[in-house]
Specification:
InterPro entries: TM_pro_TauE-like, TSUP/Inactive_protease-like
Keywords: Cell membrane, Membrane, Transmembrane, Transmembrane helix
Helix content: over 70%
Radius of gyration: 18 Å
Structural class: mainly alpha
Number of strands: 2
Pfam family, one: TauE
Order of helices and strands: HHHHEEHHHHHH
Strand content: under 5%
Family: Belongs to the 4-toluene sulfonate uptake permease (TSUP) (TC 2.A.102) family.
Strand order of the largest sheet: 1-2
Distance between the termini: 30 Å
Largest sheet: 2 strands, antiparallel
Membrane topology: Multi-pass membrane protein
Number of domains: 1
């Protein structure tokens, strides 16, 4: 094992540790670790990330469900349009994008750069959602028509498929608004959706990418190990301040990614 691979596994452990400590957000670091630290192509990195996110979210789902903090029925209902969009985006949309998205004079925006820039903007949103002070829960929401939810699922699922991250920061507000779930239960239920979306979406890549299963499984197992340890440590650490601090880090990483990709 060389130094780069060792650093990659340390990164996988940190991703899991963050997920275990604050319950979300850590998976958005998986793609940058795979691309910038381990040198994977963004297309492969987003595919691998879906597997890592899906397998680690499965562990979180079991933990939340045992504590009564995950609504299986609502999670499955919301999953259908989402996993459909994730699978189709990985199977057809991402492979179907042209190698050069557009060209202005001598500048070319390639598919790989475009995906990473888009990923960076999604990271900005994720970081902002962790930094901002959340208001007290409002429990008087009315359930919206299911076709609204279907559209939401398609949009969020497509974003998830392109960037290879869980999208919990998008699913949780949708579950609070649509299903009238309290915040803690919305977080647990979002893990059900993320697990299904990510693992089914990953199958869309099996047709187009050669998978290094040995690396992928070992990376995922180290991430899961970090989740289990982080879950135990979370009882002793203030999640609120930790989440805000990590949000600033994600925000800074997003700016770095956008700058790096657009100034190459």
């Amino acid at each position: 094992m060389d130094v780069t691979q060792l650093l990659g596994y340390i990164g996988a452990f940190i991703v899991g540790l963050v997920l275990g400590l604050i319950g979300g957000g850590g998976s958005i670091l998986t793609v940058p670790i795979l691309v910038y630290l381990l040198g994977y192509n963004p297309i492969v990195a987003t595919a691998y990330s879906l597997f890592v996110v899906g397998s680690s979210s499965l562990v979180g789902t079991v933990q939340k469900y045992r504590k009564g903090l995950a609504d299986l029925k609502i999670g499955l209902a919301f999953s259908f349009p989402s996993f459909l969009a994730v699978y189709l985006s990985r199977r057809f949309l991402v492979p179907g994008l042209p190698d050069v998205l557009f060209k202005i004079n001598d500048y070319e925006l390639t598919k790989e750069i475009g995906i990473m820039v888009f990923f960076g903007f999604v990271m900005l949103l994720a970081g902002f959602s962790m930094i901002k002070n959340k208001k007290k829960e409002v429990i008087t929401y009315k359930k919206q028509p299911y076709y609204y939810t279907f559209i939401q699922g398609i949009v969020i699922g497509t974003i998830t498929g392109i960037i290879g991250a869980g999208g919990g920061f998008l699913y949780v507000p949708a579950l609070v608004l649509w299903a009238n779930l309290p915040m803690k239960k919305a977080v647990g239920t979002s893990l059900i959706i993320i697990t299904i979306n990510s693992l089914i979406g990953f199958t869309g890549d099996l047709h187009t990418i050669d998978i290094d299963w040995m690396f992928l499984i070992s990376f995922s197992l180290i991430t899961i190990m970090g989740i289990l340890i982080g879950g135990r440590l979370s009882k002793r650490i203030s999640n609120k301040s930790l989440k805000k601090g990590f949000g600033y880090f994600v925000f800074a990483m997003a700016i770095y990614i956008i700058y790096k990709e657009l100034t190459l």
